[in-house]
UniProtKB/TrEMBL annotation:
This is Uncharacterized protein. It comes from Paramecium tetraurelia. It is a multi-pass membrane protein. Its main location: membrane. The keyword Transmembrane applies. Keywords: Membrane, Transmembrane, Transmembrane helix. Belongs to the LIMR family. The chain crosses the membrane at residues 64-83, 89-117, 288-311, 331-353, 373-395, 420-438. PANTHER family: G-PROTEIN COUPLED RECEPTOR-ASSOCIATED PROTEIN LMBRD2. InterPro entries: GPCR-associated_LMBR1 (IPR051584), LMBR1-like_membr_prot (IPR006876). The lineage of its organism: Eukaryota, Sar, Alveolata, Ciliophora, Intramacronucleata. The keyword Transmembrane helix applies.
Length: 490
């Protein structure tokens, strides 16, 4: 390749080597962090035990199996190196780094394969208010059904806990644990469970309890109580969003404002100005902006896909290496290089926010619990260095200063056959997402997506629409006595 077209390392990549100590030991700390510390912290936070010591012992026991598997693999590879008479500590460490970064790069590939297609599709959906309101109806209906089931499960669990409270009424060892579990619930929930228990009054057949069984009940209680609070708030927010989108669809075209019977009407010059700005933003400009963003992201996604295929397939159509040349201004170089980097980071973040494993994952509206945050942190810690390597490879800079931090990520030394799997996997995942079979693939692997696809918009929307209309009627009645009160500018 013509050297005049290459980006000078000292201008583009020199700032990544920060601190000699971190450069020598950064990846070692990273492996210890996401292989040992984060898994133990996750299981500690998720445990149902009642004291610090009990939680820590439980977390270590759960992770001993994982440590044993890694230990066996390490011993097996050490034996292989001894048989081949090529055993060195550097070779063993290099192989460990390659495996760690390969796993991180595999996660990045999964996230990119999803987000490169999902992001433009989301912006296309955002451009159509009718599709958006249908998605809200569907989400409201699903959340309402989930909340009803969780309320039933919570009531059954509370009845079980109250039964054990009665059974061990005079047991000084178990009563503190039972009371701690009951503190997770509201007074209304406990009173409702007491009434249900009085009607059934079936305390027969209760098994004898011990500390481990109370810990299991405590864990279930934590999950159920938090899920109920989360979905209650989610249902409320989704309903308000659906109401607002309905107001946009039914806006006053003549008056050029978005009016609603459930909100006070703005008054005054500034209030009229706010109405006009809101009208033009959501009715006139929103569609154009969302469509434009979708087209831009389609182009960026295509460039990223081609560059990823070129990196691992040793092909010659990596366009990013031609973006800048050696004569470009410093700030122009930084901006042009920043564009693909920011989009890759956005894709990875979008995937992390959308994919769940069991009940772990990010939740909207600030209701992500502690175990989910720690679980997501393990993903982020595993993809940090692979993302950096991937970024440098896009610009054909495999020997930049990042190599001083984690060493040279040399696929050819250990994983030559595995090298071609990444572009093939990326293309397969992109095709799956284009044809809306990505959810089924992740479901088979134990993952669940949070975002709804456009195909879901026409399913079960009637129930959600009825719920929104009922809520609108209730809010209109509550607002009716205050119709004569107008907001001065908000």
């Amino acid at each position: 390749m013509n050297k005049n077209w290459r980006i000078p390392k000292q201008r583009l990549f020199g700032s990544y080597c920060i601190g000699q100590h971190f450069c020598q030991h950064g990846n070692d700390y990273g492996i210890l962090y996401h292989r040992f510390f984060l898994p133990i912290t996750l299981d500690y936070e998720d445990a149902g035990e009642f004291t610090f010591k009990q939680k820590l012992i439980k977390a270590i026991k759960i992770n001993l199996i994982t440590y044993a598997i890694f230990g066996v693999l390490g011993i097996a590879f050490t034996i292989y190196l001894l048989v081949e008479k090529s055993f060195t500590f550097q070779a063993l460490l290099a192989f460990t780094v390659v495996l760690s970064n390969a796993l991180g790069l595999l996660i990045v590939t999964f996230l990119l394969g999803y987000a490169i297609v999902a992001i433009p599709k989301q912006f296309f959906r955002e451009s159509n208010h009718q599709i958006q309101v249908n998605l809200k109806y569907h989400s409201i209906n699903k959340t309402k059904q989930l909340l009803e089931q969780e309320s039933l499960d919570l009531d059954d669990l509370l009845i079980e806990i109250l039964s054990y409270e009665s059974k061990y009424k005079y047991n000084e060892e178990y009563q503190p644990y039972i009371q701690k579990i009951l503190q997770l619930f509201t007074k209304e929930q406990i009173d409702s469970a007491k009434l249900s228990r009085l009607r059934s009054k079936n305390d027969q057949g209760l098994e004898d309890m011990n500390l481990d069984k109370f810990a299991e009940i405590h864990k279930r209680a934590k999950e159920l109580s938090y899920d109920c609070v989360r979905n209650t708030k989610k249902l409320e927010i989704l309903t308000q969003q659906a109401l607002f989108i309905e107001d946009i669809i039914n806006c006053d075209m003549r008056g050029k404002k978005i009016t609603s019977a459930i909100r006070p009407e703005r008054a005054g010059c500034f209030g009229n100005f706010i109405d006009k700005v809101q009208y033009y933003w959501y009715v006139k400009f929103w569609r154009v902006i969302m469509y434009s963003a979708a087209i831009i992201f389609i182009c960026l996604g295509a460039l990223i896909t081609l560059s990823e295929i070129a990196i691992f397939g040793n092909l010659k159509f990596n366009v990013f290496i031609y973006f800048v040349n050696d004569e470009e201004e410093f700030f122009a170089v930084q901006i042009l290089v920043l564009i693909p980097l920011l989009y890759v980071l956005y894709c990875v973040q979008y995937g992390l926010l959308s994919i769940r494993l069991n009940r772990y994952g990010f939740y909207d509206y600030g209701f992500t619990d502690g175990p989910s945050l720690i679980f997501s942190a393990t993903f982020i810690s595993r993809i940090a260095f692979p993302l950096a390597f991937n970024f440098f490879w896009m610009f054909n800079e495999s020997d930049a200063d990042i190599a001083n931090v984690v060493g040279n990520f040399n696929f050819d030394q250990y994983l030559t056959e595995f090298k071609l799997a990444f572009p093939i996997l990326l293309v397969i995942l992109i095709i799956c997402n284009i044809f809306d079979i990505y959810d089924k693939l992740l479901g088979a692997l134990g993952f669940q997506r949070f975002q709804f696809e456009i195909g879901y918009a026409d399913e079960h929307t009637e129930e959600g629409q009825e719920y929104v209309q009922k809520n609108r009627l209730e809010q209109s009645k509550a607002q009716a006595p205050r119709l004569d009160l107008k907001q001065p500018f908000l």
